[in-house]
């Protein structure tokens, strides 16, 4: 669902969205855990990751989606989909 919301991919297949990103010369990495993702984002300049909000710590900056943070009403990636 995050891929669909963030990248406008309606196919329901995150692999299709990742393939499109790779075609645009963006490197996509898939990691085994939230901890691994935090480390990757923290140590890779310009890296962006999608992670469970409860795993976020002070080592990374939280970006707004449509001007909203994860606990704001109307946040695009909030809730069960």
Please describe what this structure looks like:
By secondary structure, this protein is an all-alpha fold. The protein has 2 domains: 29 residues, no CATH class; 44 residues, no CATH class. The chain has 3 helices and no strands. The longest helix has 10 residues. It is globular. The chain starts with a helix and ends in a 38-residue tail after the last helix.
Question: What is the H/E string?
Answer: HHH
Total discrete domains: 2
What is the helix tally? 3
Structural category: mainly alpha
Oligomeric state, counting identical vs distinct chains: single chain
Tell me the β content: under 5%
Q: Quick one: how many beta strands?
A: 0
The low-pLDDT segments are none
**Overall 3D form:** globular
Radius of gyration: 13 Å
Largest sheet descriptor: none
The average pLDDT value, as a whole number, equals 80
Could you list some keywords that capture this structure?
single chain, 81 residues, 3 helices
Quick rundown:
With 81 residues, the chain is mainly alpha-helical.
Layout of helices and strands, plus pairs?
Elements: H1 2-7, H2 14-23, H3 34-43
